[in-house]
Specification:
There is one protein chain. Helix 6 (about 130-135) links the parallel strand 4 (about 115-120) and strand 5. A seven-stranded mixed sheet has the order 3-2-1-4-5-7-6, sandwiched between helices. The chain contains seven helices and seven strands. It is α/β, with parallel strands linked by helices. Helices cover about 40% and strands about 20% of the residues.
Length: about 190
């Protein structure tokens, strides 16, 4: 991707975060996680990407910055106001398809498979994990974050996160890398059907 496009995407990220804060949304993807998402996305030529939990589009800005011109991203969120922020800044990118629906319903009805899934909401992470991973291609990345104990996440989340990690560690079809960095990241690579 050309330097001008890179600068535009990073500028969009900053604008999304600023706009989100003005709207009272303070859960945007942090830059360290964003750089990882961008790097992973750049490794999937002609990739099919899925983001569960668009929020206001901060992480989507990083993902599309790493995607090539032949890749596509479906991003799903139940909150139309947050999706409107994402569409304001990313809506002109024809590689992105925005879906305003409950993530659990989207996962239950999902038919296609993906090369990259960033699960940034309960469905796809704490709910319907197996169904979500069934739609990850062999060699595909499954990424989650916010795994370090932090007071900014709800107590129920802090209780569920260690159980989720144990469940992912037990799967024989994934190679897991846990990174004690940023907000706590897990990268899983699917190795078999």
């Amino acid at each position: 991707m050309e330097k001008e496009t890179l600068m535009k995407s990073l500028s969009l990220y900053d604008k999304i975060v600023e706009h989100s804060k003005l709207q009272g949304f303070h859960q945007s993807c942090d830059p360290k996680t964003g750089y990882l998402l961008k790097g992973l996305a750049s490794s999937k030529a002609k990739g099919k990407f899925l983001e569960l939990g668009t929020g206001s589009g901060a992480s989507a800005a990083w993902i599309v910055d790493g995607m090539d011109g032949d890749s596509t991203l479906i991003t799903v969120d139940i909150n139309p106001q947050l999706l409107d922020i994402a569409k304001t800044y990313l809506g002109n990118d024809k590689r992105i398809s925005f879906r305003c629906e409950d993530g659990a319903i989207f996962i239950r009805n999902m038919e296609e498979t993906f090369d990259f899934i960033f699960a940034d909401t309960w469905p796809g992470k704490f709910e319907l994990l197996d169904k979500t991973l069934d739609h990850l291609n062999v060699g595909g990345f499954y990424v989650i974050h916010d795994l370090l104990p932090d007071r900014s996440v709800p107590e129920e989340y802090r209780i569920k996160a260690p159980k989720l990690l144990n469940k992912l560690r037990e799967r024989r079809d994934l190679v897991i890398t846990e990174v004690d960095w940023a907000t706590g990241i897990l990268l899983a690579i699917k190795t078999m059907e």
